[in-house]
Specification:
mainly beta
Length: about 150
Amino acid sequence: LTVSDINDNTPTYSSTDQVASVLEEEPANTLVARIIAEDPDAAVFGSVTYTLLTPNVPFTYDANSGQLRTNSSLDRETRDRYSLELQARDGGGLVSATARVLVQVLDTNDNPPVFQCTGTPICQTVTFLENEVRASVNSFLVTATTAE
């Protein structure tokens, strides 16, 4: 007597809403997350392949491993998050419900401050040496901005 499995289960993600993060300016091919689905069927019916459904995003979703990776360096000042839709399909062609992943791009200190001269027609340079003792110190205001 031989009992054969039928394709009676669809792949399922452990959560259909997930959050992942990646630092800006990481190189292409940086691993963001591994998002996999399970299918309890046996043999080919239990094998799962993955597809990234969201077009025109700087990510890849490996069809076999479920690894979500960057395919370019990201800039948080340009875009701070991506909403992706993923799909899992089993070896018999059954499709699971899709999973949504919010990828947050984390900030790094990649923009230097820009100092502004205000209130005086000429910017002045003031130098203080370490451990220097001064009889008097003139007060002044320093303003700096950054894109961070």
